[in-house]
Structures are given as structure tokens and as C-alpha cells.
TrEMBL record:
<feature type="domain" description="Surface antigen">
    <location>
        <begin position="35"/>
        <end position="136"/>
    </location>
</feature>
<feature type="region of interest" description="Disordered">
    <location>
        <begin position="68"/>
        <end position="99"/>
    </location>
</feature>
<protein>
    <recommendedName>
        <fullName>Surface antigen domain-containing protein</fullName>
    </recommendedName>
</protein>
<dbReference type="InterPro" id="IPR032635">
    <property type="entry name" value="Anti_2"/>
</dbReference>
<feature type="signal peptide">
    <location>
        <begin position="1"/>
        <end position="36"/>
    </location>
</feature>
<keyword id="KW-0732">Signal</keyword>
<dbReference type="Pfam" id="PF16998">
    <property type="entry name" value="17kDa_Anti_2"/>
</dbReference>
<feature type="compositionally biased region" description="Polar residues">
    <location>
        <begin position="81"/>
        <end position="99"/>
    </location>
</feature>
Length: 138
């Protein structure tokens, strides 16, 4: 398989894996789907190095930040202990809070750093009746 095709295939596999997680995964998928016609832009970006346990670490950090941090206050996260040999870290920063359809919602900035590259996503999450934050459909 040519190197470029392997990278695109790896990016597609990464996107398929993340589509099943909650907030963090949804944010990554939404960001990527905007450019789904050409996944080459994902080559060598943090998302291509993230495995399911890394995404869960990001999701856990997002849930914690949304529950405990004020707007503009960041929570650091990393993938230590996930088993991934690629170190990945970043921040989760709630940006603004508001109500939508009777739910508390917050815009949140998710940042990931891996192998000298940085990716940023800005989804909106709303707190559900079960207490979990879920991505607001746009």
C-alpha cells in the first residue's frame, strides 16, 4: 500500500474508532467531516495518532472541565497510561455558557498536541439529564 494511501487509511480508521465515543470523539468527527471529501489534511496530525483509550482520556478531561472549570479556565490532559507510545497532550477550555432547549450548554475548546503538531476543535456541549455532557448537534 503506498505511504499516502496508508496515512489516509489510518486517518479513516481513526475517525471510525472515534465515532463511538461521546464528547471528545464527536468533536473530532465533526471537525473532520467538514472536509471528509479529502482526508489528506489529517496526515500526521494528532488525530491520526489517537487510539480509543487516548480519546477516552480526552473525553474524561472534557467532562471534568465542563463540570468544574469556569469559562476561560483550562484543564490540562494527556494520554499517559493509555498504552499509546506516542505522547499526546493538550487542554480543554470551556469558553462560554448558555441555555439551549432548557439545557445548560457550553462552547468548549479542545486542543491536542502530538509529534510537533497541534489540532484545535470548538464544539458545543450540553449537559443531559443523566449529568453527562454531549455534543450539541449543529
Amino acid at each position: 500500500m503506498p505511504i499516502e494511501h496508508r496515512s489516509t487509511h489510518r486517518a479513516r480508521r481513526a475517525l471510525a474508532r472515534i465515532s463511538f465515543l461521546t464528547l471528545a470523539a464527536s468533536a473530532l468527527v465533526v471537525s473532520a467531516q467538514a472536509q471528509a471529501a479529502n482526508l489528506g489534511f489529517l496526515n500526521n496530525t494528532p488525530i491520526t495518532y489517537m487510539k480509543q483509550r487516548d480519546l477516552q482520556a480526552l473525553n474524561d478531561a472534557a467532562q471534568k472541565a465542563l463540570n468544574t472549570k469556569q469559562d476561560g479556565e483550562s484543564l490540562d490532559w494527556d494520554n499517559k497510561g493509555t498504552g499509546n507510545t506516542v505522547p499526546i497532550n493538550g487542554t480543554v477550555t470551556p469558553q462560554s455558557s448558555f441555555e439551549s432547549d432548557g439545557l445548560k450548554c457550553r462552547k468548549v475548546e479542545l486542543v491536542a498536541h502530538a509529534k510537533g503538531q497541534t489540532q484545535t476543535w470548538m464544539p458545543t456541549a450540553c449537559k443531559q439529564s443523566d449529568g453527562k455532557w454531549k455534543l450539541k448537534k449543529q
